[in-house]
Amino acid sequence: MEPQLQNWENFCQYHAIGDWYGTWKKYSPTGEVIDAFQCVRSFHVSDDGNEIHHQNYYTYADGKRESKNFGSYKKPLTRALFLDNSFSWGSTTVESGSNFGFETGFRYKDRRASVVVMYDDSGTFEYLIVIPEQLANFAEQSSSSLVNEFNENCQGIRKIITPNWIVSSPVTPRWKGLEDLDKNNLILHFTDGISISIPPHIKNRNEFCLVVDWLINSTLLQRGIRNYNNESVFTGFTLETFTVGN
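Request: output the structure for the sequence above.
Response:
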């Protein structure tokens, strides 16, 4: 299948299947909650399969409601890269005086998890939004948390998709913890098994990576990495899936 068309098909298969209900939490760079609200992201494919209609429905803490229409995506055009069950979109270069941001996410069964990260126009990490979602209705709040016990004995698969939708053959990566990927990155952990590793500051002509981990359950973890070269140009999105054997 033509690469851009496969990207579209992944969007349809994994994400554009209905309404995703989530509680969005906005965090400061120090990991403090500065806002929280509910949102339903609605993705519906047209009968002929040539369009995806996208609307968001927000409910804020003060009771205010609003909806935003993101229009329709026409086959095979999308703003994101869709690699298997994951997705990522955002700024492709670092430009002086311009904001920089991205979103990376994953789907597993009737659940999704994604993170939006924003930098201000000086390249300083400004805030992030953590978005756990469930298909068709809001998830019940859980007080339990998973413990990440992944180590060098786990099994992994890595794929990379380029900006022009070319997907690499899968390879077997060695496990590395977030703290071992980039010593200069800031690492934050959140509820619902979501963690990030990002630079606290980005600037032009510097190589860096933007990492989102989702610990789906005690034996399954997915990692999405946005890679930027030494010209600060986006070169590809990496999906790594790690499992722990019985």
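The chain has one helix and 15 strands.
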